[in-house]
Amino acid sequence: MAKPQAPRGTFDVLGDAALARAELERVAKGVLERAGYTRIETPVFEATELFARGVGESTDVVQKEMYTLDEGSEGSLTLRPEGTAPVCRAYLEHGMHKLPQPVKLWYLSSFFRRERPQAGRFRQFWQVGAEAIGSDDPAVDAESILLLFELLESLGVTGTRLRIGSLGTPATRAAYREELQAHLRAHASSLSAEVVSRIELNPLRAFDSDHPGTRAVMESAPRLLDRLSDDDRQHFDEVLALLDLGGVTYEIDPTLVRGLDYYTRTVFEFTSAALGAQSGVGGGGRYDGLMEEIGGPATPGMGWAAGVERMLLAAVPPPVAPVPLDLYVAYAAPEHRTAAFKLAADARRAGHTARMELAGRSLKGQLKQADRSGARYVAILGDEGAALKDLESGGQQTVDPETVMHHIRVGFNL
Ligand code: HAM
Question: In the prediction, which pLDDT does 412 show?
Answer without folding.
Answer: 56
